[in-house]
């Protein structure tokens, strides 16, 4: 799994977007390899090779435009990789047995992944100093200009001025009913408050730090778009009310299990805790202390699980009093506050997945979100001044999340996209689930909450009717916008 880092930026947004996309495609290939789905491996690598080719020509065009002195040598490196990739892909296509397919695919993903990262960090970085430092025009405009070839006499400043003028002209002349189509999508992202400090005891600090880690996941999933009119209540993890109740539940049922361990008390005596806050606590947590916390946490949740017994040959789930109390405690104040199924073992597993003392999920979740946001805009948002992503890019990125997060969270990520992005409709969800497993039972196992949400949706025909009307309106506006821009461009041409 390769992660994009800021250090990989070459200073040109269009080329950075290409590099990110290439990384995504390599990651996706690895994911399909793991699932031994050779058909998907074949189709994604086919796409990857095509994208590599496109990227190389874009990059070479930029190098020519910025007069990069090593452009010739760089082009040779590209050619060498293109050749190697073709050979590997032919070998994969010719493979017949499972073993052959697997070894060819693994080599191909490894070679492409390694090459991509080292080439990007070492070779692509060499042209970075030649990229003008000033703000770059958005990707599509840059890409279009590269493709059509700006006249060589034009300087970077002139090019930028021309682009800005064109952008301004179109924006100023946009009829008011279309203006919103050029705006970036807006939605609410709740902030994680500052970490608490000044705890009266080590125990309180430790509890505060655990709540903080859990909160960071809950707060992350609370993002939503208030302009979307959704008929159904949010899923439980997205609700601030649920977060409050969940914190209380941890205090009541889980902390006692953590403090039962004598070892944790011993470890705490070697800890200078007085100056630490709920975040910095984790920087000092040793591996044994981490393990202790996790052990207590898991024990606490396991103790709440329903027990399977048999009565007259039939399976009966026995519910403990504590679990009944937990159910009671996490109930929403009203049916519209949030949707939570009756708590069973699956829900308890989900609650358990919310803490991992070895991982701070906040940053990783936010990175994953950034790519969802970018791909949504590039794939589904029709604004003109940006690069376009291929169809299915957002879906593949979400599927990729199975590799990066506890399985349960993909469900939540998908539902969060639905609560934020207008065109991630319930129809998108319906089509998304078909990519996971071959039947509904498998889908239930991987995406229980999306499946649950869709069952509720199917009972409310008004949701589909609303979505269809919104989509039609969207299409009409986009057509109008395209016609308008085409008209403007013709006028411009006439003038010149
Ligand atoms: Fe590159
Ligand atoms: Fe390159």
What does the model show?
- This protein has 496 residues and is an all-alpha fold.
- It has three domains: 131 residues, Hemerythrin-like (Four Helix Bundle (Hemerythrin (Met), subunit A)); 157 residues, no CATH class; 100 residues, no CATH class.
- Helix content is 64%, strand content 2%.
- A two-stranded antiparallel ribbon has the order 1-2.
- Strand 1 and strand 2 form a beta hairpin.
- The longest helix is centred in the last third of the chain and has 35 residues.
- It is globular.
From the structure above, extract its key features:
496 residues, mainly alpha, binds fe (ii) ion, Four Helix Bundle (Hemerythrin (Met), subunit A), 2 strands, two-stranded antiparallel sheet, 3 domains, 64% helix, globular
Topology:
Elements: H1 13-34, H2 38-65, H3 71-94, H4 98-123, H5 139-148, H6 156-172, H7 202-221, H8 240-259, H9 262-269, H10 287-303, E1 307-311, E2 314-318, H11 321-330, H12 345-352, H13 361-380, H14 393-404, H15 407-420, H16 426-433, H17 440-446, H18 448-458, H19 461-495
Antiparallel strand pairs: 1-2
Helix pairs in contact: 1-2, 1-4, 1-5, 1-14, 2-3, 3-4, 7-8, 7-13, 8-10, 8-11, 9-10, 10-12, 13-14, 14-15, 16-18, 17-18
The structure holds fe (ii) ion (2 copies).
């Amino acid at each position: 799994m390769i992660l994009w880092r800021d250090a990989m930026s070459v200073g040109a947004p269009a080329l950075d977007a290409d590099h990110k996309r290439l990384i995504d495609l390599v990651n996706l290939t690895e994911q399909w390899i793991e699932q031994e789905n050779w058909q998907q491996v074949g189709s994604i690598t086919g796409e990857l090779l095509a994208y590599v080719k496109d990227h190389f020509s874009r990059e070479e065009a930029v190098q020519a435009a910025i007069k990069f002195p090593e452009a010739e040598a760089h082009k040779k490196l590209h050619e060498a990789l293109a050749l190697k990739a073709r050979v590997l892909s032919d070998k994969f296509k010719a493979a017949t047995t499972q073993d052959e397919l697997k070894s060819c695919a693994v080599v191909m993903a490894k070679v492409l992944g390694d090459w991509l990262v080292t080439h990007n960090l070492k070779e692509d970085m060499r042209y970075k100093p030649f990229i003008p430092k000033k703000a770059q025009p958005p990707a599509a405009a840059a890409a279009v200009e590269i493709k059509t070839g700006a006249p060589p006499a034009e300087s970077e400043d002139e090019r930028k001025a021309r682009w800005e003028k064109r952008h301004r002209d179109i924006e100023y002349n946009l009829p008011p009913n279309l203006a919103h189509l050029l705006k970036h999508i807006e939605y609410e992202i709740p902030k994680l408050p500052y970490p608490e400090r000044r705890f009266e005891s080590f125990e309180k600090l430790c509890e505060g730090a655990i709540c903080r880690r859990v909160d960071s996941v809950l707060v992350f999933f609370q993002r939503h778009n208030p302009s979307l009119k959704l008929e159904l209540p949010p899923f439980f993890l997205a609700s601030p009310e649920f977060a409050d109740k969940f914190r209380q539940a941890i205090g009541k049922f889980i902390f006692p299990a953590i403090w039962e361990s004598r070892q944790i008390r011993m470890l705490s005596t070697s800890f200078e805790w007085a100056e630490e806050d709920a975040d910095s606590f984790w920087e000092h947590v040793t591996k044994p202390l981490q393990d202790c916390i996790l052990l207590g946490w898991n024990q606490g949740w396991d103790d709440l699980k329903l027990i399977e017994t048999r009565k007259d040959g039939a399976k009966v789930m026995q519910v403990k009093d504590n679990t009944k109390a937990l159910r009671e405690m996490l109930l929403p104040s009203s049916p519209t506050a949030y949707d939570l199924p009756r708590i069973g073992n699956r829900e308890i597993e989900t609650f358990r997945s919310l803490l991992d003392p070895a991982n701070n999920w906040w940053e990783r979740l936010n990175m994953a979100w950034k790519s969802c946001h970018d791909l949504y805009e590039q794939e589904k948002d029709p604004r003109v001044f940006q690069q376009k992503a291929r169809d299915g890019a957002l879906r593949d990125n979400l599927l990729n999340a199975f590799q990066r997060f506890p399985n349960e969270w993909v469900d939540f990520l998908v539902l969060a996209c639905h609560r934020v992005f207008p065109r991630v409709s319930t129809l998108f969800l319906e089509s998304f689930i078909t990519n996971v497993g071959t039947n509904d039972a498998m889908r239930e196992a991987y995406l229980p909450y999306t499946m649950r949400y869709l069952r509720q949706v199917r009972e409310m025909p008004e949701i589909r009717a609303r979505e269809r009307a919104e989509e039609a309106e969207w299409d009409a506006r986009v057509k109008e916008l395209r016609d308008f821009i085409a008209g403007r461009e013709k006028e411009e041409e006439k003038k010149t």
